[in-house]
């Protein structure tokens, strides 16, 4: 299975299995108010492009994405992902993406900038 890559900024990225990568983008697609950004994410999923460079999106969309990940990604993973022997590790991996948004210094919706 192909892996997926999310680049938050040069030197700060997150890789996941293709399935988890798609799920992580689909989590955003349903929630983004920036429909152009949502369409871009949908194209990545539909075409199995396997990578998202956050810098390609407008600043407001980036902030919204970071906000959705920080506010709900891990909880959604706990609720929605299948109950398997690997689920704890998968949810921890989602937390690593959230943590990376902080280590990359990415502003969320409530942050100035």
Compact summary:
By secondary structure, the protein is of the alpha+beta class. Helices cover 56% and strands 14% of the residues. It has helices at residues 18-29, 35-46, 59-80, 87-103, and strands spanning 3-9, 12-17, 51-53.
| Span of the ends, CA to CA | 38 Å
Strand residues, percent: 5-15%
Shape type? globular
Largest sheet composition: 3 strands, mixed
Nearest-angstrom radius of gyration?
13 Å
**Arrangement of strands in the largest sheet:** 2-1-3
Provide a descriptive summary of the structure in words:
The chain has helices at 18-29, 35-46, 59-80, 87-103, and strands at residues 3-9, 12-17, 51-53. 56% of the residues lie in helices and 14% in strands. It has 4 helices and 3 strands; from the N terminus they run ββααβαα. The protein is an alpha+beta fold. The model has no long low-confidence stretch (mean pLDDT 94).
Task: List key phrases describing it.
113 residues; 14% strand; three-stranded mixed beta sheet; globular
